[in-house]
Amino acid sequence: MPEIHVNETPFAVDQNTTLFRLRDAVKPDADILILNGAVASGDIPLSEGDCVSLIRRGEVPSEDELEALMAARHTPGVHQKVKTATVGIAGLGGLGSAIATALARVGIGKLIVADFDVVEPSNLNRQHYFVDQIGVPKTEATVSNLRKINPYVDVEAHCVKLMPETVFPLFGDVDVMIEAFDGAEQKAMLLQAFTAARPDVPFIGASGMAGYASGEMIGIKKLGPKLYIVGDLETGARPGCGLMAPRVGIAAHMQANLALRLIVDGIR
């Protein structure tokens, strides 16, 4: 019997099975049929190795279905590590909102996020929010947006201004800690408070991603056994060199990707 993949899961079919017969047997209400990456407009005989996606327009996949899709994309061993990890994100601005979005898309098991601010009109030039979320607390807006991306990621959101004495209770159980603040004082406070309490946990900070200079200047600097800083370490916001979506996004995704590397491979 030929073996194909249906919604990323191995599936044995008869020799004379067609696309429509498969749909009628597996998911009769599917109104979009994708065969080997292209939308199919008619009935087609299926062959060994074909990949079929059966979709009902607007339907949210079950947790098991989404899990299978992600495992197929990431490979099962990688996905298993990702889905059992917890990442902390302090700050949900241009960096933090993008980091949270990226990690939710890859199916991180749990996010613990904190920010005390609300979405402002000026945030929309680089932050992952929408016009109708202006005035909404960033924690609330982030949870709402992530639910639309991956409703099965556990998001623990704290609408608080972090202080040295509250950093460790909030982020005590994370596997990786990510700093995503704007201000130098906040960055220094978080670094000192967290690393004093959890020197065994990787800490990923950011410094220098303003303007529109070459993205190739943004890199990763290892400043200690568990301390990493992403950015060019010098380009701060100033007149004529503001914070803009492309360069901030590069830094944010480098932070998210570094977190994944630490979770999956435990890079040194």
From TrEMBL:
GO terms for biological process: cyclic threonylcarbamoyladenosine biosynthetic process. Pfam families: ThiF (PF00899), ThiS-like (PF14453). Residues 79-264 form the THIF-type NAD/FAD binding fold domain. InterPro entries: ThiF/MoeB/HesA, ThiF_fam2, ThiF_NAD_FAD-bd, ThiS-like_dom, Ubiquitin-activating_enz. Keywords: Nucleotidyltransferase, Transferase. Gene3D superfamilies: NAD(P)-binding Rossmann-like Domain (3.40.50.720). GO terms for molecular function: nucleotidyltransferase activity; tRNA threonylcarbamoyladenosine dehydratase; ubiquitin-like modifier activating enzyme activity. It comes from the Bacteria. Residues 4-58 form the ThiS-like ubiquitin domain. The keyword Nucleotidyltransferase applies. This is Sulfur carrier protein ThiS adenylyltransferase ThiF. The keyword Ribonucleoprotein does not apply. It comes from Tichowtungia aerotolerans.
